[in-house]
Every structure is written in structure tokens, then in C-alpha cells.
Amino acid sequence: MVVCGLACWRCRWLLPLLLGLAIIMGIIALAGRGWLESESEPYVQQASLWESCTRGEDDLNWSCESLMDYGWGRAAAATYLVGFVILVICFALAVIAFSIEVLRFNFVRGIGGLLFVVAAFQIIGLVIYPVKFTEDIPLTGDNMFSWAYGFGWASTVVVIGCAFFFCCLPNWEDEVLGNIKPTYYYSSPERAPYLN
Fold this sequence. Notes:
By secondary structure, this protein is of the alpha+beta class. Helices cover 54% and strands 9% of the residues. It has one domain (17-171): Butyryl-CoA Dehydrogenase, subunit A, domain 3.
């Protein structure tokens, strides 16, 4: 029976795959216009990480204002973007780390440390945005932080999970490299009479 957990060499591509998923979710968050949206009709408010758009109830055209005119808008975008760039670097390093035959475990732990930095940057951006947005931008109607903002948080949660696994992976070095001999447990029947 073969058990393929996270510490199994055959499953080494699971962590880079999860980092790739976090990158995809980060791209959706960076490009999506659904950071803040009107909750119900009429849809008169819509915002991304970069701009806030409004329109009248009978108007079809959106009137947009750049959030980069605000210090907090630049700070939120910069921190999330810096975290995203470091995440892409961590993904490349993870692919390199797991491609070579001799896995350098200190290198893997370093990737885990960088992923914690990524999570810190992304969390800062994701917290600054809603707090300052609701303070400085006049909201029309009922609004909610929507799908693109959710993808930003999902990317951050995946990054935090991967960071823990990258930091803990060196603890299973022997299992990953196959240096442990299997342990067999034998339960013998009652001792034979001639052994007394």
C-alpha cells in the first residue's frame, strides 16, 4: 500500500500547483471590476482596485474616477501588487526547487518565508481598500464587496496555507527523499510451547 501525502516525492508538484492557482486568483483580483458592486438593481456603483465607477439609474454610461488620486488607493494597489510580484517569484523558485533531484530544504523553507511576506502585503492591501474606500468615496444605494475582492482573499488564504507547508516540509526530509526504511509490525501468535 502506497500513501501519497504532502511529504511524498511523487506529490512534489502539489505545492507549485497551489501557488499557480493563487497566481490565477491574484490576476482575477487585479483585473476584476468586482471589488465593490451594487447589491441589487439599479446597478449604479462598481469599483475595481484601480477605479470607482458610478452611473445614474437611467444612464447607460459609467462615470469613472481613478483611485490612484488617493494616497490610500495607491497604497492598497501597491501593497497588493508587490505581494503578487513576490508570489510569482516564489512560484518560479518552487518550480526550480522541485525540478532538481537533490532538494535543498533550506531553499524550500526560504520560499515559505517569502510566502509569509506575500501574505502580509496582500492582507495590508485588502484591509486598506474597504476601510478607506467607505470613508472617502460616496456610496450610492446598497453595495457589497464582491467577487474580485473575494478572489483577492482566496489567493491570500492559499498563500498562507502554502507558506506553512513550505516551512514544514523540511521536517519530513527523510520521507520525501525516501531515506526511511519501512517499519513492519508483526503480531505473533501465542508463544510456542517449545520456547518456554
